[in-house]
From TrEMBL:
Record localization: Cell membrane
InterPro entries: LipidA_mod_glycosyltrf_83, RgtA/B/C-like
Record has Glycosyltransferase as a keyword: yes
Protein EC: 2.4.-.-
Protein name per the record: Glycosyltransferase family 39 protein
Glycosyltransferase RgtA/B/C/D-like domain span: 97-259
Keyword set, alphabetical order: Cell membrane, Glycosyltransferase, Membrane, Transferase, Transmembrane, Transmembrane helix
Ranges that cross the membrane: 24-42, 94-112, 118-136, 172-189, 201-230, 242-259, 390-407, 414-435
The organism of origin for this protein: Desulfosporosinus nitroreducens
Amino acid sequence: MTRENITNQEFESRASNFVLRKKLWFTVLLFLIALTVEVLYFRSYGTGYFISPDGLHYSNIAENFLHGNGLVNTANFVQGDDGVIREVAQTREYVVGPVYPMLLAIIYGIFGMMNFKMVILVLHSVLGAASAVFAYKTGELLFSKGYAWIPYCLTLGYPLFAFWGMYVLTEATYVFTITLFLYLLARYAKEVDRPKLKTLLLLGAAMGVSNLVRPLLLLYFPVLGIWIWWAKGWNLKMALRDFAVIVVMTVVVMSPWWIRNGIKYHQFIAVSNYGSYEFYLGNNPLTITDQYFYFAQPSYDPQVKARIEKLPIPEQEKEYKQLAVSYIVQHPILFLQRTFAKEKDLFWQPVPTLGGAYKIKGVLLDKWYLLLGLVGAFLSLFTLKKYSFLLLFIVYYSFIVSMITVVDGARYRLPVMPGMILLGSLVLVIAIKGIGKLTGANRRTGRRL
């Protein structure tokens, strides 16, 4: 090798390292800007945090973990009509995904037990800022670097992300994992002809971690498999190879939790040991579907509930699941009608501002985010190869949540919003490009005149 070749290689290596360092510092700057915005938003509220029975439930598990008792639940909490949360006698142990309780345990280990304020200011603000950074990175892949600021700013500006980040709940963590998941899907879509093994492994790991926060991506694998097959030009062999790597990595990430649950409870628990009651609540003849976010409803037979609650917990879950499935099988058309009605109420209309139910700063922006996202969903149909993964995720997630239960609170549609924000960004990108072309055409006309 000549001295000239060696010099060229050294120059290229230094140039490559410089580019990498520049990208790293730029990413750090993006994160710090987003973190500042998150903290300022949280500090703008008069209170340091919001707490609910679910939040205390996760906190109880984190405390037990730090005390050496493992990830177990030893207390139940309820919120009375007066708004006061009280501890009640434990009637069952609720098993939940381990990711959020362990994150709480880290914060408690550093800042002290039940330091909810630092959960918000440290954990949730960091996750919110990281979500904005991944929104930027996804925007780079979909729209180019010059337009990546659009999903970054829209993510930071969405009021429901920040508001539910004030709660000691899984929302900030789950939105982060979904944002990461969509970024990795966008990477895979860009590399689909020759995907990197690293991308496949990271995508499987992201799905596994997201399921260990909330298990709603467990049913996504058939959808993902069909999409990969389509993206591969119906090449079954290549699609199966990629899909298998993703599934195996997901199993690797989730299997320690499965093994732990099998040893401790002598049964297979994929993520959590509850949910069948809500499945039954959302799928029986008494379900109400014409009221917005209506949860406290008499949508179950009290006699059936009284009978089932006498059974052991695993049998209760099995019985509720069987009743819900039986209802769906016997009334398929009514099931679809009610599911779409619940989906419309929960996912496709803005959060109500009347009655004081939501004290969210900037809540009026919600309807514009929804409108942008829906317009973007329509426009993406003309470039389906590029944006199909976003459409499939949004359709899947909104349908699955609406199918399973009747839920209250806009927090249940938060995981759809990273996809909606990216589609809404598409609208703004097209508009900005159109204005640029029109302005350029006018300038050229003016020069000719």
